[in-house]
Design brief:
The chain is mainly α. The protein has 9 helices and no strands.
Length: 223
Amino acid sequence: MKVLQEGVLADFLNRFIDLILLNVLWFVCSLPVLTLGASACALYEVTMRYALHEDPAVVRTFFQAFKRCFKKATAVFFIFAGAGLFLALDLWCAFQWEVRIRFLIVVVILAVCYFYLAVLSHVFPVLTYFDGGVRESIRKAFVLSMSNGIFTVFIMVINLLPVFLILLFPYYFGQILFFYFILGAGGIALLCSLHLVRLFDPERAEEADRLEEEQSHMRKAEK
């Protein structure tokens, strides 16, 4: 949706407005909670296209991806919601146990939580980008997250950034939440997508970068 025409500032403002629109769509479509998975897939569909220097129609692209991924994304959402509740309960119980090996139990559960968060941070982008079933998407998300090195930690941290900010600055809870629901989710997804497209499809990402650079040079030459 191009509100302004031509120029670096206009491109930035158009993308900024698109991200706000995208974030509002994600928030509204996530309100039923059960649709969080499909909404996350639709969010990443748009931001990964941005990362490949495409200019998709935000509303149409979002709802096309939402419809296409709904069944698989909802199934994955239930799987990870159940696993997350199970891990949270295990961790709570471990802190309550008065046993000598409590520290070891907590460390083991935290290690499992790391793998859980690593896969969770990749699985919805994988569902969006690749054509596979639920089991195959979870397996691929695990393999890619484990091969992603320090970037996996980066993606996990940036996805958890709103939680960290609320814990560090509880007095600004309302402002942080408002910013996240207006722009934060789309901005975080875009930052993650800039790396994820290179992890998922490095050749396509390199080709998109090359074409964008050539077009940029052509626009400069025309001026």
